[in-house]
Target: Fructose-1,6-bisphosphatase class 1
Amino acid sequence: MKTLDAFIIEKQAEYPNAKGALSGILSSIRLVAKVIHRDINRAGLTNDILGYAGNQNVQGESQMKLDIIANDTFKHALMAREDVAGFASEEEDEFIIFDTERGRNARYIILTDPLDGSSNIDVNVSVGTIFSIYRRVSPLGSPVTLEDFMQPGNKQVASGYVVYGSSTMLVYTTGNGVNGFTYDPTLGEFCLSHENFQMPHNGKIYSINEGQYLKFPMGVKKYIKYCQEEDAATQRPYASRYIGSLVSDFHRNMLKGGIYIYPSATTYPNGKLRLLYEGNPMAFLAEQAGGLASDGYRRILDIQPTELHQRVPLFIGSKDMVEKAQEFMTEYKDA
Ligand code: P6P
Model:
């Protein structure tokens, strides 16, 4: 059995020039995951966790109490580190500058969706935390700027998620494959349980909110029909599975193969998911595990961001399935 801490130290030894900053950040994220795990698992037992907080985030979405608790837990854990210069979150209107002597000289920035799928909390359905880590591009000795957060996903140095499901797992990559750690509450440790994840190149599961079907682009409608047609050779019809929690749907597809799609629709002309702290970190993981992630046409990781909370259509999962969906999107682009 290998703990996450032991794994991080072991991997750091493979980089002779590593100073331990990224390892330290990952250890802080481990602590954040434990705290959020604890809060989620006692949510029904206290009045201060379930339900809505009574305000909205910058996206105009109602915040759950646990959204704010998870965000503040993440922010304060990172502020305590000497190697983080700034922080951006779905729950923060603007990026946060750690404007101290330490922060101004720190080399990394973190972006996060601290509690994705939080509307599921009150009905005891899986939720997740997503994080994305970059080296800053602005000069050391000065506060971070928006430019530090406007980097394309192909510049990420690490990304990962925590899925609070039937068990809690932390899954991350630093660019050399994907590894998964299952939390053992009796030990208080995350232990290596899924070494060098590989996402099956194909699968028989598609995840999409078909309630929005009438608003989907024609290419998506054609792909859904393709998934539902009988064809023994390609093992269709596929199964439809949609949890309403990106991290949970993605995690299942990582293990079993499958595709998750949140396309553009008239409700969300640019899709619902955010590029910087949902699309990019999940796309980095997908590609590191042998999968693909696109907006229906272009690689997610190559998109140059223009706004902190910009949304992006997301087609992500098994390579062959994403490629097939892209074929339909291209064929019916102007339909
Ligand atoms: P809808 C949760 O709010 C989320 O960002 C993803 O985790 C999830 O897949 C999606 O939105 C659900 O959105 O519109 O289908 O309810």
Summary: The first strand starts at residue 52 and ends at 56. The longest helix spans residues 21-41. The CA atoms of residues 115 and 310 lie 18 Å apart.
